[in-house]
Amino acid sequence: RSPTMSNPFLERTSVQVLLALVVVAFMCNAAVSHTDEGLPWEVTLGGMCVFGVVLGSYYIHRADLALTIVSILAALIPTYFVYNSEVPILNWQLGSAHGLTAPISEVLSGTWRASPNNSRFDAMLPLGLSLYDLSLLPPGISLTANTSEIYHSGLKLDDKVTGERSHEYLLISSPRKVRRKTVGIMLLAKVPYHFDVWPKEESDYAFDLQTAAHIVAPPTFTGELLKLDKGPAIVSIQNKHNLRPFMLDVYKVEYNFGSRDHA
Fold it and tell me: Which of 111, 141, 143 has the alpha carbon at shortest distance from 220?
């Protein structure tokens, strides 16, 4: 074949592979862009950036550079997907699946794998890995509990600058059987005060939320699992309850009116 008829762009195997991946990404994005599971706009933007890198590598004859950049982007995809996920879990499941001393990593990994929606891509990975294992950042947790399982710790937090009330610490009791006896394992939840979860006029913390607020609808607390705050007040709570070694830093609260799945 005549040299003038050859196309060095198409003859680069690596470039052809990259182009194929970009085309597939665009097709997948277009296929679901008008559905409830549509991909976010960042996917399209990322595909355009990858396409630009491929074209740029052709003009500067550096396909290896394009492969390096695309490899880095591919490595960051699990982090993007996992960090933007909010994994649902029921309070009784938390108590049944994870003991008192279970670390954050164990709870997050187990919760992720138990969620069919979040772990739907894990079957594509080898060696039993999940996207959670490849992520550099943890997912959020959406914990749903009955109001009869939620108590007030008596601890509140004020803003250091304004002096206004900023957070209150709630206790979420997860039932767990230990030696044929059911005990409550407490998870401390740091909840912004403006959510008004606990009635502001109620100062008797001997009762659960259902009794204090007359609310039956189970709330869902969405947040991040973090290490416990430090201080004598936290130590005092640890001495009174079977407290997990981490807490839920809540950034969203929703009530499930009409739900019967959490009784």
Answer: 143
